[in-house]
Amino acid sequence: MENNNLPTEQTPQNAPREKTLMDVLTDCGRLKYDIEKTLNIAYAKFPDTDIDALRKKLTTAGSEEHRVYYSGMDLGEYEIEEAMYSDAISGSKTSVDSHETLHALQKEKTLNDAIRDKFFPDDVD
Fold first, then answer.
1. Which positions ≥6 away from 25 have C-beta within 8 Å?
2. Residues 56-112: pLDDT tens digits?
3. Can you tell me the distance from the alpha carbon of 13 to that of 71, in angstroms, rounded to the nearest whole number?
4. How many secondary structure helices (H) and strands (E) does the chain include?
């Protein structure tokens, strides 16, 4: 057997890097976890985390933690909708279902935005 010095699955170059707290906050946002669940996960993965300080940062607009958490929420929605869109235009057997589901999501989002703008104009995510 020839050794071509290519990395294998066992080499450190291919090992997944450890997730940081910011990675976990992004993932929790992607999964639409509420802040309490996010705090529980953060504490489980990073026991030295000051949960009260993290709660304050997650709820303070402009903080890095707030930004990555809510960016994760938007990214999660984007990834799902982009996958549905790609399937809808692919012509596959599931494309009609993806198109209908995506259309329903877009209508629901438009309606929710209109309700929020009409009745809760000062609310900001």
1. 38, 42, 58, 65, 68, 69, 72
2. 999 999 999 999 999 999 999 999 999 989 988 888 888 888 888 888 888 988 888
3. 28
4. 5, 0
What is the reported pTM?
0.69
User: Angle at the Cα of 76 (from 116 to 82), degrees rounded to 5?
Assistant: 95
Residues 6+ apart with CB under 8 A from 19: 27, 45
Place of tokens 């290519």: 6
Determine the average pLDDT of the residues in 2-11: 55
d(CA 91, CA 81): 16
Say whether 114 sits in a helix, a strand or coil. Answer: helix
Amino acid letter at 35?
Answer: I
DSSP state of 13: G
d(CA 113, CA 47): 38
Provide the residue count of the chain: 125
